[in-house]
Amino acid sequence: MNCVIEGSCIKVFGKAVHALSRIGDELWLDPMVKGLALRSVSSALSAYGGFLFSPLFFQQYSLRSLSEQHRQAIKCKVLMKSVLSLFRCLTSIERSVQECHISITTPTDRVMIQFICRHGITKTHNLSFQESEAVEAMFATHLCPNVLKAPARLLGDMVAHFPVFQEEITLSTTPLKVCLRNYQEGGKGHMKMTCTEMSLHPDEFDHFQIGEDSDITFCLKELRGILSFAASHCLPVSVHFGAAGNPVCFSVKDEVVDATVVLATLNNSESRGPPQPETPAPATPRCADAAVLPVGVCEEHERVLSSQGSPEWIHPLPRISGPTRLCEAEECASTTATPASTKICSLLFKALSSEEEDDEDDGCTARLPVLARYSDEDENDEDYPARSSTVRVEF
Amino acid sequence: MKFRGKIIDVACLNHFSRVVTTISRLTKTCVLRLTPDHLFFILSGKVSNGGVSMWCELLQVNFFDEYQMDGVSSEFNEICLEVSPENLSRALKTVQSAKSVKIKLTKKHCPCLTITAELPTLSSISRVVTHDVPVDVVPRSLWHEFKEPSVPDFDVSIYLPPLKTMKNVVDRMKNLSNFLVMEANMNGDMNLKIQTDLVSVTTHFRDLGNPPWGGDTSQDGAASQSRDPEDMAEVRVDIRKLQQFLVGQQVNPSRAMCNLVHQNVVHLVLLHEDVSLQYFLPAVA
């Protein structure tokens, strides 16, 4: 994959990296026909962020170089820290960088990010990547009973009232008003924290559809990134959500960028158990289970068992039988933090990407060995290729 | 016990927030004492905070458009609350653009100072933001700890150099030593000195001027008049506490002065139009 970003778009790209850096420690680069997707997943698998840049965003965009026509475009992940450090100071980038070239090529085994700056300076950064299948959270926004569309600054201004260290907030909606307040876990120690609450009138939203009253609690830190992105581009933010326990999806769209953040929400009906990471689409923030989109009651009971840490629970596996059931499995499955479960997660993710790119798919079975390697490497940090970022300044 | 205050003026709100922010930089918790005419932020000198004490006095009428309070009893018409000024400061900072801000003493899960702000919006309906800042009521038996400190029987009283300059000097010195000696005389000279095994650094300030106390505050009037103007009074203080004081100052005061009791205490006094701040730094061995 080769692409060139020019001028002010570099800052937009940088802002997307900033937003994703709030979510996870790794950045997935997913070049597709419909554009380059940047994705990140939180380590607890409770948040997902994805920014899709259409080919129009780039001055040049090609999936494969001439020498690589026979291969598929490489999908990989890099350390978020490495990429973030390149785009950290957006104001200086805006001032001095004229073009940004990004390419992923196998001969060098590196993602090359090159900044063509003013005064004839070229900065080249080579980041090692790890080949990895794309990750994506499946979220059926059309099934959500509640949809809000807020003008650009509204949500950003609202969350500014919460202190920076506030972990989670609760969004309560009724047909008459929308209320945001900070969420505090029980316990005497937290009695001494400031409680902040604010309410918004339906008229303040561009679109206000509340099918059912709901009270959802989700992580604020992970949300701030996309709100800041929306505010800086004056784009409205769409919020799709349902009852507590179902994930909430924040999305921002314009002609060239499509950004989505999916966050798990706390399931109020269940008692708090020990932290259990679960897959993103039905995932939970650190504790309790999350129910997912329209699933029967029996599903929830099964998930209760899983959250209590039963490692033998491999219920999702039978569901991941054929491609047609993959989406459903994605939505329904949830796992505990065992090696088996990371395999399941990667199976789900992998299955999804093969679902998406049928044109490039060589067949599920051919991909499975890649998965096993992924999950193994996940457990064993030493296998991760050593980071090297070389900067060459040319005059 | 009741308290209800309302600020409408943007400048007053801004000023009040800045005062609270300054206090928050000086101490993690303090006592807010409310009387019919004044608000006081008080930190009493205790071993736990290194003997440092602070007294900040605000004239209520200069900030609040509405101010009503009912104290503990008619005889003791005051309210004393222990509060974290940082919580207050954070709550006030976010509502700087509000049309009005109300501060009330309420009882939620615990006694709280509830800050309710009405924010302007494009539509006719205002947005309301509420912050419940938890507080502790200080029982009357402890009120004696929070009385106005008397001006000490100082040896030297001198105007401070520009606080920003002082801050820069103290910042650099902090890297070299934990203790700093402040010395000054009645001739407008002040020195800030540090001394370590390897190095000693002194910064000299001249022609600062001495406030005309006129002997009415000094009990021993005769002694201070006979004092040689070149005689330096010195106090060795913890440099971090001094730096904390200087870092917190956001607004240039109309008057800034310092009273030194030789090898005893440094009494810093800042006067703004409607706020006065006193800070006591004890001498360290």
TrEMBL record, chain A:
Residue ranges, annotated region (Disordered): 354-395
Enzyme class, first EC level, given as a word: hydrolase
Location in or out of the cell: Nucleus
Domain of life: Eukaryota
Main localization of the protein described in the UniProt heading: nucleus
Coiled coil region boundaries: none
Recorded catalytic activity of this chain's protein: Exonucleolytic cleavage in the 3'- to 5'-direction to yield nucleoside 5'-phosphates
Xref: PANTHER family: CELL CYCLE CHECKPOINT CONTROL PROTEIN RAD9B (PTHR15237:SF2), DNA REPAIR PROTEIN RAD9 (PTHR15237)
Family, as annotated: Belongs to the rad9 family.
Name this polypeptide is given: Cell cycle checkpoint control protein RAD9A
Organism: Austrofundulus limnaeus (Annual killifish)
Gene name as annotated: rad9b
From TrEMBL, chain B:
InterPro entries: DNA_clamp_sf, HUS1, HUS1/Mec3
GO cellular component, one term: nucleolus
UniProt cross-references to Pfam families, sorted A to Z: Hus1 (PF04005)
Key words of the record: Cytoplasm, DNA damage, Nucleus
Transmembrane segments: none
Keyword Cytoplasm: yes
UniProt function note: Component of the 9-1-1 cell-cycle checkpoint response complex that plays a major role in DNA repair. The 9-1-1 complex is recruited to DNA lesion upon damage by the RAD17-replication factor C (RFC) clamp loader complex. Acts then as a sliding clamp platform on DNA for several proteins involved in long-patch base excision repair (LP-BER).
Protein family (similarity comment): Belongs to the HUS1 family.
Protein name: Checkpoint protein
